[in-house]
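Our platform keeps sequence and structure together, in a single record for each protein. Such a record has a labelled line for the sequence and another for the backbone structure tokens. This encoding replaces a full spatial description with a residue-level series of whole-number codes. Below, we set out a record of this kind in full and without editing:
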Amino acid sequence: MASHCQCHRQMFHRRAEHQSLSKNDSSTIRALQEQIRQLKESQLIQEQQTTNGCRQAQFKKERQRNKDLLRDLNKKDEACKAWEKKYNLLTCTVQDLKRGLSGKGKKVADRTYDEICNCEENAQELKELRSAQNSSRINSKKRRTANWLTRTSLMRFAVNISSSTLIM
């Protein structure tokens, strides 16, 4: 009988050990599941931060490119305004000369004004010829003639301007 009681005791201890092991195992499993869940969340957060970082870098590049384009456009606009101002000043000066002069001086001013108009026409022709030159639609003789005409017109223009200022 003593051996029978001893057998029951052993069974009771084994059952208690098994229950305590199963309690420990379930708490360990829960803890591991919680750690897995936290790791998945942190991985998702890292992926989102990486994606956001890439997007921010792309936005910064686009913003910088837009700033550069705007700066270039402003420079070109300022250059155009400067040329327009010079042109307007030059034509106003010639028109003032025409109004204020009589006789020979007026003829010089008329010629100077005509030269300005010729320079504009020649500049337009030169633009057209250069575009044709770039597309290989014009031969070298025509190019030389166009360049000679432009240089000649500009030299005449410079001579007329200097002579009109000397007359004054």
Observations:
- The chain has a mean pLDDT of 68.
- Residues 1-79 form one domain.
